[in-house]
Write a structure and sequence with these properties.
The protein is of the alpha/beta class. It has 2 domains: 102 residues, Urease, subunit C, domain 1, CATH 2.30.40; 277 residues, Metal-dependent hydrolases (TIM Barrel, Alpha-Beta Barrel), CATH 3.20.20.140. 33% of the residues lie in helices and 19% in strands. The chain has 12 helices and 18 strands. Strands 1, 2, 3, 4, 5, 16, 17 and 18 form an 8-stranded mixed beta sheet that branches. The chain has a 5-stranded parallel beta sheet with strand order 11-12-13-14-15, with helices on both faces. A 3-stranded parallel beta sheet has the order 6-7-8. Strand 2 and strand 3 form a beta hairpin. The radius of gyration is 22 Å and the shape is globular. It starts with 8 loop residues before the first helix and ends with a strand. The structure holds zinc ion (ZN). Zinc ion binds next to loops.
Length: 422
């Protein structure tokens, strides 16, 4: 993409006029709105963030010493500092030496379903630079749909698949629809569509031979019904053979990587025939203990002790390696990669993108996956530092293109243009 230096002078003038008529001093107001606080000095309600290295998030190269302008929660200009015109009266935030990247979006989570707990899940994510989370298939309660409709100030946006669809799995959760016939499968889709879900989730997994799994006839019915209702579909899966069947049936996304074996040329051909399909690799525990000390002050001492006590696990490492090789090959084949973490761990995206890089994606590719590709998958107007996008960004003390774990060195987070109270 290209950076457009655009300043809406008419709007700026109108804003100044209104402020003058009201006699309002907006530098005070800016400090109190929704936890926002910008270095003031301006009077316009417009803020220019000056001098940072900008990682746009859409795959275009980083801009050393860039500037971008935010007005009403949207980015109105972005580019090389000396080419961006800063409106008169704008507040200025000096970010020299810092790196700015878009907030990340987590496209595979399972959040709380009670309203206040869900709101807390979403607030804690905003503090870690996550602007949205999609909950995939365990949301039986109605309050989640209230949260879905009204973005909570200072909290990540929420998306939900409602109740997902699977075969009967006695002994596991009974929140999902259990279906045995194509008619039941279609009825389940209609029920979730009526609830207002953002996507339809299916599970195609026999759980190690314990259950019947969704047949092509069943998931074909789900996908067809969903598409007729204008909804996309995402699949939990395990096996390459199911991945092929799902591709042929028109699935829109994979909520996990392929876990039983290495992908083959036949699958690569299916991927290349349907470049719009999204892969969310959702990497599991690598099997190798890693240092979690960066979470000091973010998680409790008890949780920290548990994390730091993780042990080496050869079986996990082997399973991880299959998925890593598949991610590497699918990424190189041009498959669209988004980011998702599963479960309810608010800081997990920072671990996930490290895994993606260890698997062979470049830091830039992992950032694009987690930011613009994931935001596009969710359909939100965010995920890049570009004109017209929601001003959802992180200010980092170090460059994640040098070391992907630098996404953890968060100085500030701005969500919809407002500084998040972390
Ligand atoms: Zn899941």
């Amino acid at each position: 993409m290209t950076f457009i230096t655009s300043v809406n002078w008419i709007r700026t003038a109108a804003t100044l006029l209104v402020l003058a008529l009201l006699g309002a001093c907006s530098s005070d107001e800016a400090d109190t709105a929704d936890g926002a606080s910008v270095q003031s000095g301006g009077t316009s309600g417009i803020t220019a963030f000056v001098g940072a290295r900008i990682i746009p998030g859409d795959g275009s190269p980083a801009i050393e010493a860039g500037t971008f302008v935010v007005e009403n929660g949207l980015i109105t200009a972005a580019g090389v500092a000396n080419e961006v015109q800063i409106p008169d009266g704008a507040n200025r935030v000096n970010l020299a030496g810092a790196t700015v990247m878009p907030m990340m979006s987590d496209t595979h989570t399972h959040l709380n379903t009670e309203r206040e707990a869900l709101a807390n899940d979403l607030r804690s994510r905003a503090g870690m630079g996550i602007n949205a989370a999609m909950s995939l298939g365990m949301d039986g309660s109605d309050p989640v749909f209230e949260v879905q409709k009204d973005a909570i100030p200072g909290a990540a946006r929420y998306f939900t698949a409602g109740r997902g669809i699977t075969r009967p799995e006695p002994g596991r959760t009974d929140v999902p629809h259990w279906v045995n016939t194509p008619d039941e499968a279609r009825e389940a889709v209609r029920e979730e569509a009526a609830r207002g879900v953002d996507i339809i989730k299916i599970w195609v997994d026999d759980r190690n031979g314990q259950y019947e799994k969704m047949t092509p006839e069943l998931y074909g019915a789900v996908i067809d019904e969903a598409h007729q209702l204008g909804l996309r579909t995402t699949a939990h899966l395990y096996n390459l053979s199911d991945a092929k069947g799902l591709m042929e049936a028109g699935i829109d996304a994979f909520a996990h990587g392929i876990r039983d074996r290495d992908v083959d040329d036949e699958f690569i051909a299916l991927v290349q025939a349907r470049p719009e399909v999204v892969l969310v690799p959702n990497m599991p525990y690598r099997g190798v203990p890693t240092d979690y000390s960066w979470l000091a002050g973010v998680v409790s001492a008890e949780q920290m002790a548990e994390l730091q006590g993780q042990e080496e696990n050869e079986q996990a490492a082997e399973s991880w390696a299959i998925q890593a090789r598949n991610l590497y090959r699918l990424n190189r084949s041009g498959m669209k990669i988004a980011m998702g973490t599963d479960g309810n761990t608010f800081y997990a995206p920072h671990l996930e993108i490290e895994d993606m890089v260890i698997a062979g994606m470049t830091p830039m590719q992992a950032i694009v996956a987690a930011t613009s590709t994931s935001a596009d998958f969710l359909g939100i107007n965010a995920g890049s530092i570009a004109v017209g996008k929601s001003a959802d960004f992180m200010v980092l003390d170090a460059n994640p293109l040098d070391d992907i774990t630098n996404t953890r060195r968060i100085r500030d987070v701005y969500l919809r243009g407002l500084r998040v109270d972390r």
